[in-house]
Specification:
By secondary structure, the chain is mainly α. The protein has one domain (about 5-250): Ferritin. The chain has 12 helices and no strands. Helix 1 (about 5-40) runs antiparallel to helix 2 (about 45-70) and helix 2 (about 45-70) packs antiparallel against helix 6 (about 125-155). It starts with 5 loop residues before the first helix and ends in a 6-residue tail after the last helix. It is an enzyme of class 1 (oxidoreductase).
């Protein structure tokens, strides 16, 4: 059989490594946020919200499983990686705080994730396109639910508006990382595998402004961006989350169910 020149082999290996890295980013985002939201199970303000958040968590964990499955062994990637090996954005690992902070985080992330998945459904890689096409229907609901609650809390009582504003202020500094493009992502964008998030940043910010206007809330002042999650530079919050999420399979590695 004919063999490829060494230079072409190197290129293909780099593309494959970048593909794995990107799928881990997508999978880690969804899985970590799913784990975070699952912490509300049994603790939400009302039963209807408890069920809604549980369903969001299940959707996200499913998306995370699918993308991590493209990157390798999904179970090993989920339960046997140390904190520095995770590639999720910093926004999704932030603590729930109160209900308003959880909703602020969800609205900011789901709006971005929905726009991303819409475009990834047309990825030149059929595997990514398939997972994104399935997930976009779920995330459309996440986005709508979160936006509705931002409006309800912002245009509610003085207390709910204050808490909503505080939740947005906590999460605002993590938005720029969603639109960061590094060397790994740039190469996949060039090949049509990944989506360039900078192409929909204006649309994203316009949509966030629309929701905040309807909620009668002012956008928080711009803050110094916090970056590094894609490179394994995480906050202390992720370590605490993983300690809970990974406890059972790490404690009983040979257990079967």
């Amino acid at each position: 059989m004919p063999t490829l020149p060494a230079s072409e082999v190197d290129v293909e290996e780099k593309v494959e490594l970048a593909f794995v890295d990107y799928c881990q980013r997508l999978g880690d985002d969804a899985l970590i946020l799913g784990q975070r939201i699952s912490e509300w199970c049994g603790h939400a303000p009302v039963l209807e919200v408890d069920l809604s958040l549980a369903n969001l968590a299940l959707d996200l964990i499913g998306q995370g499983t699918n993308f991590l499955g493209l990157a390798g062994d999904a179970n090993k990637l989920a339960f046997h990686r140390d904190v520095l090996d995770w590639k999720n954005c910093l926004l999704v690992e932030q603590p729930n705080g109160d209900f308003a902070q959880t909703i602020a985080r969800q609205m900011l992330f789901s709006t971005w994730q929905h726009m991303l998945y819409q475009r990834l459904a047309n990825s030149s890689d059929a595997r990514i396109a398939g997972v994104a096409a399935k997930g976009v229907k779920e995330v459309a609901y996440h986005r709508e639910l979160a936006a509705d609650w931002v409006i309800r809390l912002g245009d509610g009582t003085e207390e709910s508006a204050r808490r909503m504003a505080q939740g947005l202020d906590w999460c605002w500094r993590f938005i720029p990382e969603l639109f960061e493009v590094d060397e790994v992502l740039a190469g996949l964008i060039e090949r049509g595998i990944a989506t360039d998030p900078r192409e929909f940043e204006a649309e994203y910010r316009a949509e966030i402004d629309r929701v905040l206007t309807e909620a009668k809330l002012d956008a928080p002042a711009e803050q110094r961006p916090i970056l590094g999650g894609r490179r394994g530079h995480h906050s202390e919050h992720l370590g605490h989350l993983l300690a809970v999420m990974q406890f059972l399979p790490r404690t009983y590695p040979d257990a079967t169910w």
